[in-house]
């Protein structure tokens, strides 16, 4: 209940580089050096000829894109002198600089010097090429993966939540469900894969089942523990004020358990990604996992990297979304982890 | 607005009768007696304090009165009928405010009305209660933003909104700093005088009992037995320095076996 004690001092939010701090000229210099780094990537790509016998179509395009970014960053650096909105970019500049250096190195050791063996390590422009030329198939893959994941995840989360509340609340439900949960829950969902693919009418429905299973277990366990951990004083208060059983479940147990439920939802989401990719690689003939497998089969490593990159964006985006939802629903909590 | 709450309570408080109430806990198979044949009678609108050493079973007695637990033996009656389950006419203010952290102060106070489906018709009472305890400007704050005293006042408002006939106070001021405590004691008295509910206060603070209650029931160490009863018919507000007050305090301490120590 104390309102002051758990106030943990947080490191102040500064840019990663000490010398970029505060003064406008310094931040201008910082912004311009980031722009210069990107200009260097552009120049390196454009004017250092690719190694002989290579046919990277988008070398020029990639150089142009880096150049355009350099220009935009330079403009933003100047705008930052006047407009506060652009100063936010300062926090990003160390990262933007590091990224430019990484791209330059990557470009140099692949397309220019050919130090890394092909086709395993394509240059950045090869990935740009894939994204531009094969975007149709990639978009289809994203859509298929998202549909499968969303269906399985929501189903698993909903069933897990209801089951968790039931076990936490009712002794009878606990008696019957708990042993089943203990026996089957720890089994990795992927172990069901062979069985699921012949029991279910389609590989799609089988995958939904597997993803729901992978999501449902952690959600069930954490919802249950959340409900079981509710302080009995909360119930006493509500009971003396005339609460019914229904009120105790819906308005006391569930809201009090929500922080735990979200931990379960996060764990479930992580699990569901893993099962999604495995299911797509082994059975479903669509989605990013399938695309990965397909690209590898054709030794199209650039396509593989592109799919991996998109997958990273997709997963990270979903986790972010879940964090946003949690921050919004649990705004009454304090000192929660920022994603 | 104070008048609104007070006049709603025109029904006045309820009576409370305890007949030979005994209670024991089960401690690793061994019964641990906590209350030993407690009998007492509380009149309508009376303010009674239960005074006793820490851990003597006072809070257990309150839980029985609230209907949260049932006694091992004996019976508790209010208005002639047996107490079997919690009822919103008997509201408890616990030592710990126990506000729901996920609700704002306003919706914490609204809890009882919401639980009974009266929120729509009695909405106005929430503001009245918040104003009564001086928390109107914190209606939208979350519990973690409140100080200890503010949280306890919110808990008091949450109880008062339900128009209790019997207000059960379980050391409600125990965790407050002494200044807030003195102010809240005065507030409690004036609230009780205006609303006329029956009040049952558990405390281990002798002065608090003497300041607030008309009758003080002194309990023994565990298992709690009624040791003595002290009537304080002084008018309110009472003063700590008043000779009669000092005399009563000495008497109560004597009953507690501490006459030389203080």
Topology of chain A as a string of helices (H) and strands (E) = HHHHHHHHHHHHH
Strand percent estimate of chain A: under 5%
Low-confidence stretches of chain B: 1-10
Proportion of beta-strand residues of chain B: 15-25%
**SSE sequence of chain B, one letter per element:** HEEEHEEEHHHHEHEHEEH
Q: In whole angstroms, how far apart are the ends of chain B?
A: 43 Å
Q: Compute the number of strand runs of chain A.
A: 0
Overall shape of chain B: globular
Shape of chain A: flat
Q: Give the helix proportion of chain B (percent range).
A: 25-40%
Gyration radius over CA of chain A: 26 Å
Low-confidence stretches of chain A: 1-21
Looking across the biggest beta sheet of chain B, what order are the strands in? 6-7-8-3-9-10
Specify the number of helices of chain B: 9
Query: How would you characterize the largest beta sheet of chain B?
Result: 6 strands, mixed
Main sheet summary of chain A: none
Largest interface: A-B, 25 and 33 residues
Structural class by helix and strand composition of chain B: alpha/beta
* End-to-end Cα distance of chain A: 26 Å
Which structural class do the helices and strands of chain A define?
mainly alpha
Give the assembly state of these chains: heterodimer
């Amino acid at each position: 209940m104390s309102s002051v004690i758990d106030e943990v001092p947080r490191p102040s939010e500064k840019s990663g580089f000490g010398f970029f701090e505060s003064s406008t000229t310094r931040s201008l210099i910082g912004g311009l050096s980031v722009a210069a780094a990107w200009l260097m990537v552009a120049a390196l790509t454009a004017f250092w000829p690719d190694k002989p016998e290579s046919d990277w179509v988008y070398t020029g395009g990639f150089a142009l894109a880096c150049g355009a970014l350099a220009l935009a960053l330079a403009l933003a650096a100047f705008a930052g002198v006047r407009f506060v909105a652009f100063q936010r970019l300062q926090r990003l500049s160390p990262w933007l600089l590091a990224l430019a250096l990484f791209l330059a190195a990557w470009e140099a050791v692949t397309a220019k010097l050919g130090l890394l063996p092909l086709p395993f390590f394509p240059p950045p422009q090869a990935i740009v090429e894939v994204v531009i030329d094969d975007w149709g198939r990639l978009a289809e893959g994203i859509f298929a993966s998202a549909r499968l994941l969303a269906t399985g995840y929501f189903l698993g989360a909903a069933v897990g939540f209801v089951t968790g509340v039931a076990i936490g609340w009712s002794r009878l439900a606990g008696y019957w469900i708990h042993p089943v949960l203990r026996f089957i829950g720890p089994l990795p969902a992927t172990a069901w894969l062979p069985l699921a693919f012949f029991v279910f009418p389609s590989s799609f429905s089988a995958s939904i089942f597997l993803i729901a299973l992978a999501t449902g277990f952690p959600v069930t366990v954490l919802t249950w523990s959340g409900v079981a951990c509710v302080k009995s004083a909360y119930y006493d208060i509500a009971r003396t004020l005339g609460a019914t059983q229904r009120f105790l479940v819906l308005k006391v147990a569930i809201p009090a358990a929500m922080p735990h439920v979200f931990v379960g939802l996060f764990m479930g989401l992580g699990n569901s990604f893993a099962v999604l990719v495995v299911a797509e690689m082994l059975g479903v003939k669509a989605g990013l996992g399938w695309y990965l497998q397909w690209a590898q089969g054709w030794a199209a490593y650039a396509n593989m990297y592109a799919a991996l990159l998109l997958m990273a964006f997709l997963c990270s985006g979903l986790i972010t979304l879940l964090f946003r939802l949690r921050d919004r629903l649990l705004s009454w909590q304090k000192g929660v982890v920022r994603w | 607005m104070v008048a609104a709450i007070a006049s709603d309570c025109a029904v006045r408080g309820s009576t409370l009768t305890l007949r030979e109430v005994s209670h024991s806990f089960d401690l690793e198979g061994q019964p641990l007696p906590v209350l030993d044949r407690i009998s007492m009678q509380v009149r309508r609108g009376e303010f009674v304090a239960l005074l006793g050493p820490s851990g003597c079973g006072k809070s257990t007695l309150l839980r029985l009165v609230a209907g949260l637990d049932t006694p091992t033996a004996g019976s508790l009656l209010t208005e002639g009928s047996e107490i079997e389950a919690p009822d919103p006419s008997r509201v408890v203010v616990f030592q710990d405010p126990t506000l729901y952290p996920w609700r704002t102060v306003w919706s914490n106070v609204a809890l009882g009305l919401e639980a009974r489906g009266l929120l729509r018709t009695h909405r106005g009472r929430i503001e009245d209660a918040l104003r009564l305890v001086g928390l109107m400007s914190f209606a939208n704050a979350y519990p973690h933003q409140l100080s200890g005293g503010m949280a306890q006042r919110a808990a008091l408002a949450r109880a008062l909104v339900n128009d209790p006939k019997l207000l059960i106070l379980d050391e409600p001021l125990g965790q407050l700093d002494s200044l807030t405590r003195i102010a809240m004691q005065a507030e409690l008295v004036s609230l009780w005088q205006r609303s006329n509910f029956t009040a049952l206060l558990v405390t281990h603070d002798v002065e608090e009992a003497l300041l607030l209650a008309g009758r003080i029931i002194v309990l023994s160490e565990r298992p709690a037995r009624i040791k003595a009863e002290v009537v304080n018919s002084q008018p309110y507000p009472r003063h700590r320095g008043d000779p009669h007050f000092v005399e009563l305090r000495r008497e109560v301490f004597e009953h507690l076996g501490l006459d030389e120590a203080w």
